[in-house]
Amino acid sequence: MLGSLAAAEWLGRLILAAPLALVAITGLAHLWDRKLSETATARLVEAVNVFGLAASLSLLGLMLWSGNTHVTVDLGNWVNIEHFHFHFKLIFDRLSIPFVVLTFALCGTIGAFCERYLHREAGFHRFFMMYALFVLGMILTASAGTIETLFAGWEFVGLSSAFLVAFYHERPSPVRNGLHVWAVYRISDAALLIAAVALHHLTGEGDFDQLLSVHSWPDGEVAQKVTEQQALLVGLLLWLAASGKSALIPFSGWLPRAMEGPTPSSAVFYGALSVHLGAFLLMRFSPLLALSPLLSGIVICSGLATAIFAAMVGRVQTDIKCALIYASLTQVGLIIAEIGMGWDYIPLVHVIGHACLRTLQFLRAPSVLLDSSALENAVGRTLVKTGGGWSTRLPLSWQHRLYAYALDRGGWDAWLNRLLVAPVLIFFRTCDGWERRWTNWLNGLATRPAASHTHHISPPGETP
Length: 464
Fold this sequence. Notes:
The protein is mainly α and about 475 residues long. The protein has helices spanning about 1-30, 40-65, 95-115, 125-140, 145-165, 170-205, 210, 230-245, 255, 265-275, 275-285, 285-290, 295-315, 320-340, 345-365, 370-380, 395-405, 410-440, and strands at about 70-80, 85-90.
């Protein structure tokens, strides 16, 4: 038994080491200006994903064979001061292992697809650098044993996502939309950081095993040190973080903007993995939802409202990627509602099935028009849309109003620009100006105005 436990811990370390090695190799190659060839990069990505997938499946098999449903990999305290410690710990259980396997499987598929899709692309190596950072962030988030470790992985995912939205930086639109996504992510990250600080303040620790009795997830009891009022406070912050990352209402406006990036990153990030991180966060903290009926009700209403909104908006989209992303958001809303209802395994199975389906659909998106044209040629006429659905039974005036509402995407994009994105960008640009004046003064140089910003945020109501 002790031998199997030691082997499981080593497999857990190898799972994290695989994407860490990919980040180190691609990053050092960029720093030393020794870029790998496209073939070498593709082989490296393939080897890392195969190794990580084999290690995670081996760990899953070992856990099933030994009957141990919870493996802990304690990597010690990285920061340890009087009133705070940064405990680096990994846990592999019934929630984290499926996410880890899913991440390696889908990221491996995307890596193989990109070998040809991005062939001779100017940003080929830059894409795989951000890709490596994303894989590391997903593995770190999924296997995190403390909220500090989860926050580190959460940041890696957000950073790589924002950079890949702005991948085609020679055009102003991707950069503008990348800034928009980054600003919304800042709100989400701030909520998660405040939740981490609140947990440390209220309970003295951020360890999931001690805080939430994760050891027996999903059948365990919540630790008694967390009261219902505390669960509501921390849970609302976590719900806000999940809403920003998974584009729930009112943060849905950034999701179609993320389609500016390459199709492979759209598939694996916003269609399959990254968009489900909010659901993963709520599943990890599901014991808090069980403590607070009010919090559960808020999560259910948020998920159902997002699903209805996305289903309606997706019906009027004119491009395939936006139609797919709103279809993805519909399912994410339903998954969030399932979590709020206290269901344990149904949301997890829903996430896995939905992520695999959306990855396939996004990768096939560039071929949809060709397939449609070939089908029309085969039948000898233009395909006719059949079926009216429930919307045709509404009065004509209501149909027009709902159509206008859906076409404007509910106006959430303009609201985010005015109340969230613009203030965040203004604040950081002001800080940048202060920093430039301060450094110039310290260097004895004449005060110069801050560098002009050629990229501005979208005016309210502008669509990507």
